[in-house]
Design a protein that fits this description.
With 319 residues, the protein is an all-alpha fold. The protein is 53% helix and 3% strand. It has a two-stranded parallel sheet. The longest helix is centred in the C-terminal third of the chain and has 36 residues. It is globular and about 80 Å long. About 3% of the residues have low confidence.
Length: 319
Amino acid sequence: EFPYDWQNNFFNKAKHTEKEIEDYCLDLGIDIEDDKHLDEQEYQSLSEYRRWCLDNFLSLSEHGLYCKCHGSARDNLNIPVPTRAVAGDFILPMEKVLNRLKSEFGLARLMLYEHQSDKKDNDIDDDACYAELYDNELLGTNIEKLRTAFRICFGILDKIGNAIALLFDLQLKTNKGKVRPSYFHTFWELENEDRRQKFEAYDNEGLIGLYSIACDLNHKLEGELSFYKQWRNALEHSFVFVYENEKPEDIETSLAYYEEPVFISESEFVESAEHVLQLTRSAIFSFVFAVRIKAEREALNNIPDILIQNKFLEQKKYT
């Protein structure tokens, strides 16, 4: 998307920098080896599923944001990192939230993968018999995986909303002072001047990223992706008709008891589910960055009292 003149300028700068690196390495007697093929070898050594996660931007690995080598073989995203000091008694509770987000996201991602690749246990089949209504509706466990993956993502987003509201003192309360649930796309209410000032005072890039995603999903703010939230509500409480090939006609009788049913083609729903997972992945990263930024600032203010670093967080993989 860059203007042509800008592209040339960037390429020239890149070549100049490469030449400087080569000259510097020659002066030091360092042999320069192109290691791109090593990254490709490591990528090919990963499982088919992990390569799919990386290719579709669905990994929860910071290394996987820019590289597909062995360093991105696991979803090892954490709030603390070994190279930066962090402090705050909120770190472990937020890490527990992150554990829950990673677990649920992993299930949603696996369901999308199994639907797209049609991976299933041949010994377990869908034993249900369905009435033939000649309406092209897709039924059975495979399409339910896709529908479930879509719904799970919005549960993850709401969990992020509740954690952020608690951590940054943005919780909404009733007239009796009780805390109201924080729904990711609506709890911000930055039209309230006091909340906006509090939000801006944090000066936290992770928070800004989360708010941007929330605005995209907010119907009242005319967010361009708000129809995803409407689909999710219909999946939970109404009727979403996922059809194969052509949109069915003349089925008003069978849908008479449902208000405003939603009709989605399989191809559109698959594409949308993948997009929602990518959006949720971005929200998880922004959540981690928001907490990390807060923790790093706490450390700067309390250098003698550093509570935790990444090396103290043992990681384990459940099988």
